[in-house]
């Protein structure tokens, strides 16, 4: 089965500083990958390379079996950034309007909006549990609700891959668990391949299928069972300091949770 992403011997540097050093990473279809690592580990740079915002200096990035330099079908990829933390709450748009803007490339900027398009918007909102808020102004929502709307906006064009850069920034602590569960449901019920960049390794380990530990080098890449069996020294090496890894018996089928 063709990989969604295939990265081989990827290097990237800013002037004299090597940010990514010989990265080899494969993302299978319908997987849920968490990329974890400390600040300055190269996570954002890796995302920019996958999204075509930066060009590889050395090595290869392939998307859906095609070299990224030739890849044109960007509708297959949805991206959600840390918007909830800095969104202008005075922005005059309803939730429905924000999500429908995700269809602009598909239907054209000045084309009329059809019933089938409205149905797509409501389906995307339903997938993130926000359909009852469709007439609300986006600025009236909490940070977590706004992020769900931004995810719906990315989903409305039916992407095969959804990339999220620390999406729980601005989400209330008590809502983080349900937020990650929503992402897990998108992965398992809709078969969307997910890549999540996060610091929150404690909360996500029972939701994701694979983990990549990045700190300029890729120190680990495997499924969550293998991740939880990692020796403490190896994981601490990734973060540059000692951390504690606790496995709980009541964890999800992928394993316990990290605290």
The level of helicity is 25-40%
Order of helices and strands: EEEHEEEHHHHEHEHEEHH
Tell me the CATH topology.
Answer: Rossmann fold
- What is the number of E strands? 10
Unreliable residue runs: 244-259
> What general form does the structure show?
globular
Q: Calculate the terminal CA-CA distance, rounded to whole Å.
A: 34 Å
Name of the CATH architecture: 3-Layer(aba) Sandwich
- Strand ordering within the main sheet: 6-7-8-3-9-10
Beta-strand portion reads 15-25%
**In DSSP terms, counting alpha (H) and pi (I) runs of 4 or more, how many helices?**
9
- At the first level of CATH, the class is Alpha Beta
CATH superfamily heading? P-loop containing nucleotide triphosphate hydrolases
Sheet with the most strands? Answer: 6 strands, mixed
Our Rg estimate from Cα atoms comes to: 19 Å
Count of spatially separate domains: 1
Overall pLDDT score: 83
What does this structure look like?
- The chain has 259 residues and is of the alpha/beta class.
- The protein has a single domain (5-239), classed as 3-Layer(aba) Sandwich (Rossmann fold).
- Helices cover 29% and strands 24% of the residues.
- The strands form two sheets. It has a six-stranded mixed beta sheet, sandwiched between helices.
- Strand 1 and strand 2 form a beta hairpin.
- Helix 4 (115-127) crosses helix 5 (143-155).
């Amino acid at each position: 089965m063709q990989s969604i992403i295939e990265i081989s011997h990827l290097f990237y540097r800013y002037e004299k500083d090597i940010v990514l050093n010989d990265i080899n990473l494969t993302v299978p279809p319908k997987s849920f990958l968490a990329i974890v690592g400390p600040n300055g580990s190269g996570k954002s740079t890796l995302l920019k390379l996958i999204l075509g915002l930066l060009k590889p200096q050395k090595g290869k990035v392939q998307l859906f079996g095609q070299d990224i330099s030739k890849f044109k079908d960007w509708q297959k990829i949805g991206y959600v950034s840390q918007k909830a933390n800095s969104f202008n709450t005075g922005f005059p748009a309803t939730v429905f309007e924000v999500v429908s803007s995700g269809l602009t490339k598909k239907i054209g900027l000045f084309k009329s909006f059809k019933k089938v398009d409205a149905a797509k918007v409501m389906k995307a909102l339903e997938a993130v549990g926000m359909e009852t808020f469709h007439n609300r102004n986006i600025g009236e929502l909490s940070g977590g609700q706004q992020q769900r709307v931004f995810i719906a906006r990315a989903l409305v064009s039916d992407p095969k891959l959804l990339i999220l850069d620390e999406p729980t920034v601005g989400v209330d602590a008590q809502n983080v668990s349900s937020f990650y569960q929503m992402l897990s449901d998108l992965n398992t019920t809709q078969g969307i391949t997910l890549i999540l960049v996060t610091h929150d390794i404690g909360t996500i380990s029972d939701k994701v299928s694979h983990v990549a530990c990045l700190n300029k080098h890729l120190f680990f890449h495997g499924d969550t069972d293998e991740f939880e069996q990692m020796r403490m020294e190896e994981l601490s090496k990734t973060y540059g300091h000692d951390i504690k890894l606790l496995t709980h018996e009541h964890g999800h089928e992928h394993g316990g949770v990290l605290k």
